[in-house]
Specification:
The chain has eight helices and 14 strands. The N and C termini lie far apart (62 Å). By secondary structure, the chain is an alpha+beta fold. It is globular. A hairpin with a 5-residue loop joins β4 and β5 (89-94). The chain has helices spanning 3-13, 29-38, 49-68, 102-108, 114-120, 158-161, 196-202, 270-281, and strands spanning 40-43, 73-74, 77-78, 80-83, 89-94, 125-126, 135-141, 150-153, 170-175, 185-188, 217-218, 226-230, 235-238, 245-255. The protein has one domain (35-281): Jelly Rolls, CATH 2.60.120.620. 27% of the residues lie in helices and 22% in strands. Strands 1, 4, 5, 6, 7, 9, 12 and 14 form an eight-stranded antiparallel β-sheet that branches. Bound molecules: 2-oxoglutaric acid and fe (ii) ion (FE2).
């Protein structure tokens, strides 16, 4: 067979971009190829409904606690609050959650995540106390919310703010809600993890642009699903246009290389200062 035919045959057999995989004891060759070529993977039902409950309970407990105690920053990373779906105020982004929830820490250390860890390399650790730690997000579409979605960005650029070259990094998302493409949710541009530093820095204005991209893939989740994406891949969270809706996700940083540990004495990270300014500009706090 000539090379064009081989390529065509491979493309015919390749899974579609919205392929949803099952996580086993080891990743399959197909899953590894998919991640290598497209820069992401989507797994169905990695958490049981009870485990989804552990994550959402931790989120509610911590946001209540930190609102009651008037805490606005954990280890130099701001927590920001705003209206939720009910009467009470909620948090849109909670950093270092596993440090304050032993149940969550135990869950994230479960052996089922080992095959994912191996993807990152040897001596991989969960960055419970590094960068922003384990983060739980809430995107709420109600009046007064400063976070109905999240604009285009890559996660790797954050490393530049820590004055180091973006490390090879994979980000693991656990998804707590059922979200169809019409209901917003995670959007990824496949293959952009391979486009080099310039594309990573300048392809789109960070966090400002929310415009759909013609090659974006919408990740349609059920509660308990997991996604893995390369830190250099462009992605965003599309807003659910239906009022009074929310979406929740948890992100686990798997780290290699020298740790940058954050403690109570850590100063506010510069890019978070920018984020705080942007939210004030939108009328949040
Ligand atoms: O909520 C999500 O699925 C994506 C969150 C995200 O991209 C981020 O926090 O960097
Ligand atoms: Fe991200």
């Amino acid at each position: 067979m000539n090379t064009t035919l081989v390529k065509k045959e491979r493309a015919r057999r390749a899974p579609p971009l919205n392929q949803v995989f099952t996580l086993g004891a080891e990743l399959t060759a197909e899953q590894r190829d998919f991640l290598e070529v497209h820069g992401f993977l989507h797994f169905r039902g990695v958490l049981t409904p009870d485990e989804v409950g552990i994550v959402s309970d931790a989120q509610e407990r911590l946001e209540r606690q930190w609102i009651e105690q008037d805490v606005h920053e954990i280890r130099g990373v701001p927590i920001f609050f705003g209206p939720g779906l009910g009467e009470r105020e909620v948090s849109y982004r909670l950093p270092f959650c596993s440090e304050f929830s032993p149940e969550l820490k135990t869950l994230l250390n479960d052996p089922r995540f080992e095959p994912i860890k191996e993807l990152v390399g040897r001596d991989v650790r969960i960055g419970h106390n590094e960068q922003d730690g384990v983060v739980i997000n809430r995107y709420v579409n109600v009046e007064g919310s400063v976070r109905p979605g999240l604009g285009w960005h890559t996660d790797g650029l954050r490393d530049l703010f820590y004055l180091r070259k973006p490390q090879e990094m994979l980000n693991f998302g656990l998804h707590l809600d059922q979200v169809s493409a019409e209901e917003g949710g995670l959007r990824l541009i496949p293959g952009t993890h391979k486009q080099g530093m310039l594309s990573m820095m300048f392809r789109k204005p960070y966090f400002i642009s929310h415009k759909p991209h013609k090659h974006e893939v919408a990740v349609e989740t059920l509660p308990g699903d997991m996604t893995v994406h390369d830190g250099r891949l462009w992605h965003r969270v599309a807003q659910n246009k239906t009022p009074n809706t929310q979406r929740r996700s948890l992100y686990v940083p798997y780290m290699t290389g020298p740790p940058i540990i954050r403690t109570e004495k850590s100063k506010t990270v510069f890019y978070h200062k920018l984020g705080r300014l942007a939210r004030r500009f939108k009328g949040g706090r």
